[in-house]
Design a protein that fits this description.
The protein has about 280 residues and is of the alpha/beta class. It has five helices and 14 strands. It has a domain of about 190 residues: Purple Acid Phosphatase, chain A, domain 2 (4-Layer Sandwich), CATH 3.60.21.10. It binds manganese (II) ion.
């Protein structure tokens, strides 16, 4: 984990998966994504949903040059022969009206089945249809200790004020603990729901996005893979020519950093472990 790899020109991958780019919002890390796309060379590119954020764009136009460049760059890849599949998510849900349509070499599909070089079949879906609950406090799951303690002391202060005003004690700690538990439970439920669907479809694994949490994890007989996002973590899933899957984090120092990995099946030689 965390193997750093030097910058040595474009890297050749069999396929690349990105999602949750949220073009059209201020949180989108378009410049970093552009850097990333410049550094890759692949046969297939999957856009796994929430690429353009249509909801935000309704409440005001935010479309800087870099966001345009991302779209242009992807269309150029498609023109140059990269197989580009666009699987819309909930934020670009209107694109779902164009499922089955090809534009500029890009194929739009509700979901897809991707077969890796070593013969494993993966359901590729954004994943929003499996999140059952609208989650309010997912960020609390990621809340660090420091922020937590700072909030607790703020709570002590607040309760002093409440007491003076004649209100009863209100426990932020208990409130947060429930919320964190709920958020972690939400992620767990989501991962299992997605894995169940993959099992139902008779595939070996699932590749999704939506919850902005990159991960490769075995859930029973299903390999659960989440390619993360380009708002917070700047992560992508890549498949090497041998079928090995890796989650790359791009943000740190604008260089490769492997944060999760699933080896290829033993039947295929895996000649080039991506380690420094
Ligand atoms: Mn989503």
């Amino acid at each position: 984990m965390g193997a750093e790899v030097g910058d040595t020109g474009p890297r050749r991958f069999r396929s690349v998966f990105i999602s949750d780019v949220h073009l059209g919002t201020r949180g989108c890390q378009a410049e970093l994504l552009l850097d990333f796309i410049r550094e890759i060379d692949c046969e297939s590119l999957y856009l796994v949903g929430d690429i353009v954020d249509g909801w935000k764009m309704k409440s005001g136009w935010f479309w800087p040059q870099a966001h345009n460049d991302v779209v242009q760059k992807i269309l150029r890849l498609a023109r140059k022969g990269v197989s580009v599949t666009y699987i819309p998510g909930n934020h670009d849900g209107r694109v779902r009206d164009f499922c089955g349509v090809h534009f500029g070499g890009v194929v739009v599909a509700r979901d897809a089945v991707h077969e890796t070089a070593d013969g494993r079949r993966f359901l590729v879906t954004h994943g929003d249809e499996f999140d059952g609950v609208v989650q309010h406090a997912r960020w609390l799951a990621l809340l660090g200790d420091v922020a937590y303690r700072a909030l607790l002391s703020a709570n002590t202060l607040m309760n002093r004020v409440r007491r003076r005003l004649g209100f009863g004690y209100w426990s932020l700690s208990a409130f947060l603990k429930t919320r964190v538990k709920n958020a972690l439970q939400f992620i767990e439920n989501f991962e299992h729901a997605v894995a169940d669907e993959a099992r139902r479809r008779g595939v070996d694994g699932v590749i999704c996005g939506h919850i902005h949490k990159a991960e490769i994890r075995q859930i029973g007989d299903i390999l659960y893979v989440n390619d993360g996002d380009w708002v917070e973590s700047c992560t992508a899933l890549v498949e090497h020519p041998c079928g090995r899957l890796e989650i790359l984090e791009w943000a740190r120092l604008r260089s490769w950093s492997v944060i999760d990995r699933a080896p290829a099946r033993e039947s295929l030689a895996d000649p080039e472990p991506l380690a420094a």
